[in-house]
Each structure stands twice: as structure tokens, then as C-alpha cells.
Amino acid sequence: MDCSSIAIARSWVYRGPMSIVTGLKRLVVGRRLANAPAAPTLLPKRLALPRLASDALSSVAYAPDEILITLSLAGMTGYLFSWQIGLGVGIVLAVVVVSYRQTVRAYPDGGGDYQVASANLGKHAGLTVASALLVDYVLTVAVSVCAAVVHLKVLWPAAANHQILIAVTVIAILALVNLRGARGSAAWPTYVFVISVFTMLGIGLFRILVLGQELRSETAELTVIGPEGVDHAMGWVLVAVIARAFSSGCAALTGVEAVANGVPYFRPPKSRNAATVLAIVGVLAFAMLLGVVVLARLTGVHLIDELGGASYLAPDGSTSTVGAATVTGQLAQTVFGDWFLPGSYIVVGATLAILLMAANTGFTGFPTLASVLAKDGFLPRQLHTRGDRLAFSNGIVLLAGAAAVMVVAFEASVTALIQLYVVGVFIAFTLGQVGMVKHWGRALRSEQDRGGRRRMTRARVINIIGAVITGGVLVIVLISKFLHGAWIALLAMGLSYTLMVAIDRHYAQVRAELALDARQDRGLPSRVRAVILVQQLNLPTLKALNYAKASRATSLMAVAIAVDDEETRRLSQAWAKEDFGIPLRVIASPYREITQPFLKYVSELRTENPRDVVAVYIPDYVVGRWWESLLHNQTAALIRSRLHHMTGVMVISVPYQLSSSRRKEQRQARS
Amino acid sequence: MDCSSIAIARSWVYRGPMSIVTGLKRLVVGRRLANAPAAPTLLPKRLALPRLASDALSSVAYAPDEILITLSLAGMTGYLFSWQIGLGVGIVLAVVVVSYRQTVRAYPDGGGDYQVASANLGKHAGLTVASALLVDYVLTVAVSVCAAVVHLKVLWPAAANHQILIAVTVIAILALVNLRGARGSAAWPTYVFVISVFTMLGIGLFRILVLGQELRSETAELTVIGPEGVDHAMGWVLVAVIARAFSSGCAALTGVEAVANGVPYFRPPKSRNAATVLAIVGVLAFAMLLGVVVLARLTGVHLIDELGGASYLAPDGSTSTVGAATVTGQLAQTVFGDWFLPGSYIVVGATLAILLMAANTGFTGFPTLASVLAKDGFLPRQLHTRGDRLAFSNGIVLLAGAAAVMVVAFEASVTALIQLYVVGVFIAFTLGQVGMVKHWGRALRSEQDRGGRRRMTRARVINIIGAVITGGVLVIVLISKFLHGAWIALLAMGLSYTLMVAIDRHYAQVRAELALDARQDRGLPSRVRAVILVQQLNLPTLKALNYAKASRATSLMAVAIAVDDEETRRLSQAWAKEDFGIPLRVIASPYREITQPFLKYVSELRTENPRDVVAVYIPDYVVGRWWESLLHNQTAALIRSRLHHMTGVMVISVPYQLSSSRRKEQRQARS
């Protein structure tokens, strides 16, 4: 949800004897880019807005749908409340945007909710926010892609038969694009989307309100019956449905935090520019959401979910549970269909495009947050370093895998996924706002200037309102959605929270164990006994021998394991002929096994000379093609890893570059 | 298909920074066994027979079924030929057994077809046999497990709804059992199977032929209609169906070669004992096969495949394509059902058990053959070494994966899999026999003794007959099955053949490239410049510094990369305070990246001192739990692998054992 990926040149590097998986990866992802990482580009507002806001704005493509689908569970009565619910969501949106403008001003270096909660409420609040956001990034990808597929159905009805497959394929493509190093997303889909939606709303409202035309959507003639034949729900059932519809509609708020996280990528004055963009995004999202809900009401859009239990009742008395096109699709058809058909395709196409962009923001946001968490020691440290694109690759693969699992598990149903979605964002919102309240409280204690104090008090009031409202919405969301799926999201958050706490504790323990203090013995080992593992007498062995000699150890010994009598005899003869000046010791191996006898020899050498260090030289074959590494060095790797468990041993790899490796280096040097 | 696994103690070892996959593997497969490999146990005939022959004998459980199912494609006419086809298969079986008795006598050290073909017909014939056998091991597992599931359906009809899932689960369980180190298979299922089948055949034939009872199987009243309503096929259609039925019936011959491969595991006199067991297996298989086919004819068993196109016609005129129980199941029910029901369960249960044992032989045969191929340089060399159980693990996982793919692709249908199955075995049979013919020809040229020459000439005649018969069957199988699926098996064999040739060529090229000869420069590098990578100042770094000092290099330099200004400042101060006597060089890293700046430094050092070797010391954290290794050493591993591509650099790992690693070593030492 920020654009640090713009700055990252990803590359793939040789990582020792390679696994089949790595090989396949190389095959799919392509040759590594050898570029050095570049500094992040700072964005003017007109570029920052489309890149950071696609997630927030794209929710207009599914939030109204989810409101109407949920309301259909209460039969026709539900629809009476559609615009009030839209307005309610819009008010919460406004509160959140205003609150975030305070955050952006207070943290000009980029105040994600994670940083705000950590700094003000402590580690555990920060980790709670972080795990909520990690889970939500997964859901952002899953929901956005599934919503995109639903819009694809409007353009290409045959897609309905393969929704899951298409959604998973799209996720895979997004992952690949990001693995290969996406250069940031384009700005135009956001603008096309915003302009086309407003055009549609404007023309639609103009035709209805000014020209007095009667525009009827394709589902206007249908009435809606709730589950078990409910056509007008009353009392608690109605309240529960309205609460759920509101909760689902709150999906429109996801993505607002992305602008706050993106502050570092704005041109200075960063805070002011970010606050301005936030305000613009808020106004746009509010207007689009309410416009769509109102126009849907005016044109009589009725929407059901095929699996939700509600059904359509046609004027001829027949019923059907087959869903209709999306709200956007129906409105576009209604507004443009009778005079300018391409207009409706442009609206749907732009919606599809912005939904894919929104999914793509997950592929930036997730690895970036993971990198921040790794820097703070809550995730494996290798996820941190910026230039090491492996960090980002792992995050991308993890995110894509999790999103694909969600899509398959929930059969690409946006309505089902939405039940999991909003919880995480509102946990982050609430803790972020509470953190801001504390922040202002602390700031007020040290601020003397009267004007400053007034501004801070005002900001604190805004954030208090924000915290109360978002907290209240969180409670509504939890109650209305817990059993419908939110528990899954909470469980996933709990697991990632526990994992991060465990990793944090592990790093702390290791740090304590490895700390230098005065009591430790600083004595040097007295001598170095070099052992060279000889399997064949060839150039890599010769190189290892030469390097061992150059290192002037106290004693030098070449060791061969007699796996095959014939080979051993040949080796001994060749050794005698070459006259290296190093004795060759042949060790019997009754079970034709290399590792154990060699380890035993090294171990005995250690026991006999406890004050010395044993230096084991192992020739290493460096090859240029990934599959070649499957054919070499495996025994060496095994021995090396076993030696690591012995104290007083150091392991020396003497790499020998085979011609295929040298050719590869030359190719890369040229390119 | 032999029992070398009896001798193998599998263990799992630490292999450096571990992948998630490895971690999961450890979790599932369990803690490594630290035992040393033991010598193979030699088996008396009464144990060798059940262990080596389960594959050959178990085919009685599906070969008659496949004969009848194929014949059903010709309608009722087909069934007239059932016992002739059974007899034909039996005759081929006899020829193959007699031929193999010659092979076993000629190769007392274990003459698999691969060795025989390689030794007498050259590398390419050997590789052809090897790839045929590798593919056939996969199919042995797939076919045996699917046939077992079909028999499970007889005992537990609900299994029919989950055949694929059950088959894949069984394969996974077999793989796990073998990964954890199966201690050879039990002998009793084979004996129970043989005894129960003969009891069933004896009682059945006695009741019909002696007591004159009319035993009617459950499908006796049904007639069979071939595809497109054919109820009596004629002419070429009939010939084609008979040829296919014969080819499918030849599945009864698979597994005979396993006894020949198993010669090394017999007690001396190995050859004679193996030949005796071969004869016994041949007689048993022949009698059981023919007995089942004849009894099925007498009791009116009719069998169709649900997807094959044939259908049942009931006396009331209704038709059905729902298949019936297996031949063994129907016979057991017919013979025992009306007076001793447990008898029928024993037969079916024993059949199930021997089929699982047969599948299990694949899990021994495949890795063993792969190990032999690796020794000869046709597969990655690490598959060879006996004691290294990783070799066998990889083979087991590969086999299980391939078998599972086959099961899923062919929807656990034995009839579909059988189309692929027999080709490989008959390629191996034919080339093995041709190789034996050449062997005797060569032996005759040097043999002077008249008695010896007579024996050899006789053996050669037998092998010529064997070669002609098996070659003829191979042609029939290829013609009758090619389009029905055999092409897939041939394609797989072609791919593995190509792979092995490529690996062979690669190893030869590397050997040539690395060979020592007199022209090479033997000059020693003049000096060693040691560089110690310092990321933090802690005990592992101290250890690396001490080891570097003890190694008395020409120059010593500690290098830190300035990723974080604050950390770097603290490091420099601590360094100054400690007074190690080694300069610390801090290298700027504008993009907060460790690898590139460090590599650049080493590269410059190399350029400035082209005659010297650079020794890079890297502290390595050794941890005891698999997940801990995900949290450490990743940057070190990356740097190490990149350094391997530089000439004139050696990389020294200085392992520091964390307490979790020491505790693990102690646990293992105790256990």
C-alpha cells in the first residue's frame, strides 16, 4: 500500500547448491537483474494520489454491492435502509480521513498505524496492529481480485464457469509481475475510474432528476425474498441485517491507511501534501459511494448472492437464485445502455483495472510492512535489508499463496470474503487512533506555546472522536460478523501475533547468549591443523591443496575415504607420483560411506589436540547452470553442515569455478 | 523389488540453513536416527520368497480382472476365449521364469536386467532397460495401490466414493513408512494369500467337479454387451480385443524380475537358492492365475469397467454400467458365501495385504536402482552412497509423487493404468534376454570343457526362446496398447533416458575439464589476506577473529558494512574499546544493503593483489531447532554463495554453536 517497490531492483543470486524449487523459481521468474538499488523517487500529488489511493477508491466497486446483498436477507424492507447505511459508512469514512490527517501531520516520516501504536501504546499494541494489517493485506488481494473477476463476468459472461481458476491465475500473474520487479503502478486507471464513475453518476442523476426520465435497472422489476421466504423482516432480524450490511459497507474504508503509510513518498512538504491528498481521496470516496448507493436506489437495483439464501421473485411469480451483474455494471448499463453503449464498457473496464491495481498494492504493502517488522526483530531478519530482493520475494510468494488459499477456500465469493475483511482494518484504525490520543497527551505535557497547545488539543479531540467511532464500528463488525467468518481472520491474526512474539523472544535470547562481557576467555587457539578432504585428484583438489599450503597451518594432512577400493588405489598412486609434500591418509569405510568416517577422523584430531583448531578444506565446484548444482557438492554440503556442529573446527570452502560458471559471469558482466 | 532397505538405517542430518520444506520434512518424518549402517542380512529361502515374490504373486489379484474386462468389449463372444488367454499368459510366464533361472545362474552377484543389458549390449541398452524399470516401478506402486483400493471396496463399499483420495493417502503412508526406515516387509501376508487363494480354488473346483454343485457367481445371470451394443464381436474387432486382453493379462508377469534382482540377498549357494525360489514362484503364479481364470469361467463371472463402454444386460432386460466386485471377491463370495462367510473375507483381506506389499517393493526397488544408476554416473552422484539415507529419501519422495500423479490422472482406475504398465517390463525382459544370448555366445567362445559347452548351449537356446517370446509379446503389447496409454509410458521412459544420457555427458565433461595434467600452473598463491565480516560485536565474531588470528595470514582486516548509522557508531566504539589489534574498516552502504558493498570490497582487494588469495571469515550461527535456522545466517549464506563466483577467494565458516545446538547434540549423544 505504499510504493517502495518503485525503488527496488529485484535480482536473483546464486545461493549455493540449489534446490529443485529454486531452479524452477529461476526458470519462471527469469534471470537476475544485476542492478544496484536506486533511491526512492518522490512523487508529486498528482501521481501519489492514484498510486496510493487505488485501494481506497476501488472499494466503491464492491461495498455498495455488499450492502445491497446483505440487505436482501431482510427481503424488500432491507432496501428501505440502503442510503442511510451508505450515509453511515460515508460518515465513518469522513471521521477516519479527518483523524488520519492528524496522524500524517504528527508523523511526517510516515506514520503507519503500526508505528503509531508501537510508539504510543507499546510493543504488544504495535504487534496487534501489525498482525491485523498482514492478514488484511492478504484479504485485500483476495477481495480485490475476486471483485475484479465479478466485473469480468459483466464483460465476458463465460468467465462465470471458471471464477476460481481465473482469480488464482490473476493472483499468480500479479505475484510474477511483482517478483520480476514491477516498476510501480500506472496512474491512469485511477483517473479513468474516478472520471467514468462520476460521469455515470452525473448523467444518471441528470437524466432522472432534471430530465425526469425513468431509468430502470435490469433488476428493477424483481422483488427480493430473504431466506426462508422472508419478504419483510422485522425487529431484531432487521437490526441484525442492517448491522451486517453496515459492517460490509465499511469495506469502503479499507485503503485509507495506505495514504498515511505513504507519507515518505510525497514531495515536501510531505505532511501537508499527504494531508491534502487524504482529503481529496476522502471526498472522492464519499461522493462515489453515496452517489452509487443513491443511484442504485433510484434505478431500483436489487442484488442477491447466489449462495446467501435470498432469491429473486419475478413479476410472473417465478423465483430464481441466480445473481445479477454488479451494481456498477447495472448502473452503467442503465445509464449508458440506451444511447452510448461503449460508456458502460468503459465504466466496467475501469472498475476492473482499478481493482487489479488495488490488489497490486497488497503486493507492495505486505513485503514493506514485513520488512519493517523484520527490522524491529519480529520477523526473520533477512526480510529486512532493502536491497536484498529475496526479502521481498519471500513476502510476495507468501502473500500470493495465502490469498490463493482464501480464494479457493471461499470459492472466489466476494460476499464470503468480505465477512473476514473489515475486522483487521478497524483494529488498526482503532489502535492507531488511541495511539494518537496518547501522542497528543504526551505532546501537550511538554508544549508551552499557547497556539501550539490549542492546535494539539483540537487534534486530540479529533483523534478521540476517531477512536470512539472506529472502536464502535469495530464492535459492531465483530458482533455482526464474528460467526460469519470474522473468527477466521481473528484466528489468523492471533497466529501471526504469537509467531512474532516468539521470534522477538528468540532474537532477544540469542543476543543475550552471544553478548561479549569481561569474564569470557579471550585466549587464542594455539595452533591450526589443516585437513584437506580429497575425493578425487583433480584441479579443484589441487586448488584446495595450494590454498591450504599458502595458509601455513601448523600441520597439513590430506584425507581420502576409501569408498571404492579400485578408485582409492588409483588415487594413492597418483598422489605418490605428484609429490605434493602433503601426506595422504586413507581412511577405511566398511559401509562405503564418506561422511561418518571423515567426521570421526576430525573428531579424533580434535580430542588429541584440544587447544588447537582444526581447519577443514573442502573443494567446492561452482557451476553456472542451476541444474548442474544438483549434480555436484552434495556430499561436501553434508559434511560441511555436520562439521558445523563440532566445536573448534572451521570449514574452508575453496571454490573452483567450472567453465559454465565463468561463461555465466561473463554473460552477466556483458549485460 | 529387492530388500536392501532392510540394511539401511535412515537418518536426518543438519544441512546448513534449512528451508521451510526441510523443516516440515523433519516434522513429519521425525528425528534422525544416528545409527551407523549395518551389513545386509542374508535371507533363507522361506523368507526370501515372500519378500521378493509379493509383486509377482499379487498380480493374480488384478490380471484375471483385466482379461475379463477387456474381453467384455467384445460382448459375450469374448468370454469364450478367457481360459485360452489365461493359458497363453501362463505359458509366457513359464518361459520368462525358465529364462530368468539362466540369468540367475550366470550372474550370482545379482543380475538385474539393467546390469545384464549394460554388460552385454552396451550403455544405451542398459539405460533403455533402466528407464523402462524406473517408469515401471512407479506404475507398480500406482497399479498395486489402486487394485488394493478396489478390493477394499469389496470389504467396505463406502470406499467407492473416495477411491482417489484413499489411494493417494495409502501411497503417502507407504512413503512415510519407508522414509522413517521400514525394516523390511513381513512374510506372512504372502503365505496367507497363497494358502487362502489355493484353498478357495480347491474348494471351489471340488464343489463343482466332484460334488457336482452348481456354483453361480453374483454376475453369472448378467450378460455383457460391448460398446455400441456389440454382443458378439467378430473378425478383426475380436482379434484386437483378444490381443488387448492378452496384453493386459501379461501384467501377471511383472515382478518376476524382482527375484532375479534379489540374488545378493539369498543365503549361499545364492544362485541355486534364487533359481529354486524362481521356480516355486513361477509354479505358484501359473497355478493361481489359471485356477482363477478357470473357476471364474465355471462360476460365470462377468466383469465390465464402468468407463470402458461395455454394459451389463440383466435377465429382465435392464442394462447397467455399474461394475461388480473383483474376480477374487466374486469367487470368494461364491465359494465361501453360502457356508463359511469369514473365508471370503480372509481371501479378500489377504489379497489387499499382498497388494500393499507389492506396492511397497516399489519403494525399495526404485531407490536401489537409482543408487546403482548414480554409481554409474547416470543420475546425480549423491543418490549413490549407501549410508547416506538422503539418497533413498529423495528416491522415495520422487516415486511417491509420480505414483500419486498417475493415480490422480487416471482416477485410480486399474484398467486405465494397466494400459501403461506392461510395456516397460517387457522392454526389460526382452533386452535382458537378448543380453543373456550374447553373454552365452561370448562364454562359449572361451569355454573348452565339453560339459560346460553343452550346458551353455542349452542355456543359450532357452534365452533365445525367452528373447523371441518376450520380444513377440512386447510387439503385441505395443500394437494393442499404444494408443490406449502405452505411449505415455514410452514418453516417460524416453524422458528419463534422455535425462540420464545428459547427466552422463555432463559428468564426463566435468571430469575432462578438471583432470590434472602436466601443463597446468602449479604455482602457489604468494600471500593470504584475511577479511573478517563483522556485523555485530559478539561471541561468534570474537571466535571468527580469534581463528583468523591463529591462522597467521599476511594481513588481517575486519570489515563492517554501515547499514544503520546508530549501530555502526556503537560497533566502532566497542571495537576501539576492545583493542583486538585488528583494524576495523567501515564501508558505507547508501542503500542499507550488506552484500553488494562487501563483495565490491573483496573484489577490489583481489584486483590490487592479484597474486594473493583472499580468505573471507564469516561467523556462522549453529542452532539446534529447525525453525531457528530460518532466523539466522541468511545474509551470510548469500554472501558466501556470491563469493564462490570470485576467483582467488576462499570462504571460511567459523561456526558458533548456540546453546540450543549444544543441547541437541547432547540429546542425540544420550539417545
Written account of the structure:
The first copy, chain A, is α/β, with parallel strands linked by helices and 671 residues long. Chain A has 24 helices and 8 strands. The first copy, chain A, has helices spanning 20-29, 45-58, 63-71, 76-79, 82-106, 113-121, 123-155, 163-179, 188-210, 235-249, 256-261, 270-298, 327-336, 341-375, 389-409, 414-446, 450-481, 486-514, 539-550, 565-578, 595-608, 626-629, 634-643, 659-670; strands at 223-225, 311-313, 319-320, 528-533, 555-562, 584-588, 613-622, 649-657. In chain A, the strands form 2 sheets. Chain A has a 5-stranded parallel beta sheet with strand order 6-5-4-7-8, sandwiched between helices. In chain A, helix 16 (414-446) packs antiparallel against helix 17 and helix 16 packs across helix 18 (486-514). Residues 1-25 and 30-39 of chain A have low confidence and may be disordered. The interface between A and B is large, with 90 and 90 residues.
